[in-house]
Specification:
Helix content: over 70%
Number of strands: 0
Oligomer: single chain
Radius of gyration: 13 Å
Length: 117
C-alpha cells in the first residue's frame, strides 16, 4: 500500500495525478477496469517520454519515476524491461530509445491505446 501511495505521489509530481489516483484505488480493492485504467495511464506516461526519440536529463528523471509508478500499478512486460535497460546503462543510446519506442508501439497495439492519447 505504501508503494502505491508513493507511486501516486510521484506521478502527481510529474503531472499525471489521475494515474496516481487510479493506482491508489487499485490498492484499495478497485475494480479490474480501474486497475486496467491505471496500468494503461502509467504505460502512456512511460511511452510519452520517448515518443519524440529524444531524452533530456529531465526526461530521464521523469522516466525513472514513471517506470517505478508503472511497476507499482502492475505494468509488466517488454516496456518495463526496455525502460529498465535504458535507465540502467548509465545513459541511453539511440538504439535503446528505439527499442523502447517499439515496445511501446507493440503495447499500444495490444491495449488499443497510444502514448499520445
Amino acid at each position: 500500500m505504501t508503494i502505491l501511495a508513493g507511486a501516486g505521489f510521484a506521478l502527481a509530481l510529474t503531472g499525471c495525478s489521475a494515474v496516481g489516483d487510479v493506482a491508489s484505488a487499485a490498492g484499495e480493492g478497485a475494480s479490474s477496469a480501474e486497475v486496467g485504467a491505471a496500468r494503461a495511464a502509467a504505460l502512456e506516461q512511460v511511452c510519452g517520454l520517448v515518443e519524440d526519440g529524444q531524452l533530456s536529463e529531465a526526461d530521464l528523471n521523469a522516466l525513472r519515476t514513471a517506470v517505478r509508478a508503472a511497476e507499482a500499478a502492475g505494468v509488466e512486460g517488454d516496456v518495463i524491461a526496455q525502460a529498465d535497460q535504458l535507465l540502467g546503462d548509465g545513459g541511453p543510446d539511440q538504439g535503446q530509445v528505439q527499442q523502447l519506442q517499439a515496445a511501446c508501439a507493440q503495447a499500444g497495439e495490444q491495449t488499443g491505446t497510444t502514448a499520445d492519447q
